[in-house]
Amino acid sequence: MKPLVAIVGRPNVGKSTLFNRLVKRRLALVEDVPGVTRDRHYADAEWGDRAFTLIDTGGFVPGEKDSLLKQVREQAQLAVEECDAILFVTDGRAGLTAADQAVAELLRKSGKPVVVAANKLDSESVQVQALSGEFFRMGLGDVLPLSAEHALGVNGLVEALLDKL
Ligand code: GDP
Ligand code: MG
């Protein structure tokens, strides 16, 4: 069976954009409005001679009784239980939030292989400058600069992921 990889992170960081790019099709709905309800999407991704199955997590319900933070944690927990490795996406322009920290803690405790991306860093120069120490303090190792929308840093991210599978 192919290894299973989940993309996790809080709403609106660019998970679905990354998912579509990696599966090379537009299967997941990219939403400008944070917190719109979506299903989980599964698709096969191929990279050179390697293949894996990718899950786009989401399904956040705005205004639900459960807080956003709790829903984000639940998605991450599900991913940890189900998957061989995790792609954890953060917003490199917004910086770390409480929801990011909660996910990071859960992932650290899980011991599962994790690759962390700081997305929305849309140019080479921004990618070089932008990564501040706060991301590294999550204790999940390297944080790779990414622009899912402009396809910058995607190869490096997938290489790092494949190294851990
Ligand atoms: P998700 O909620 O984490 O799945 O995020 P989406 O993939 O739906 O993206 C949320 C918003 O961020 C959309 O407006 C995307 O166009 C935008 N976005 C995603 N990736 C990037 C990126 O690399 N750079 C910029 N500037 N915007 C992005
Ligand atoms: Mg999404």
From TrEMBL:
Taxonomic superkingdom: Bacteria
Residues of the full protein shown: 1 to 165 of 465
Family assignment from sequence similarity: Belongs to the TRAFAC class TrmE-Era-EngA-EngB-Septin-like GTPase superfamily. EngA (Der) GTPase family.
Residues bound to GTP 1: 9-16, 56-60, 119-122
Purpose: GTPase that plays an essential role in the late steps of ribosome biogenesis.
Quaternary assembly: Associates with the 50S ribosomal subunit.
Protein name (record): GTPase Der
Domain EngA-type G: 3-165
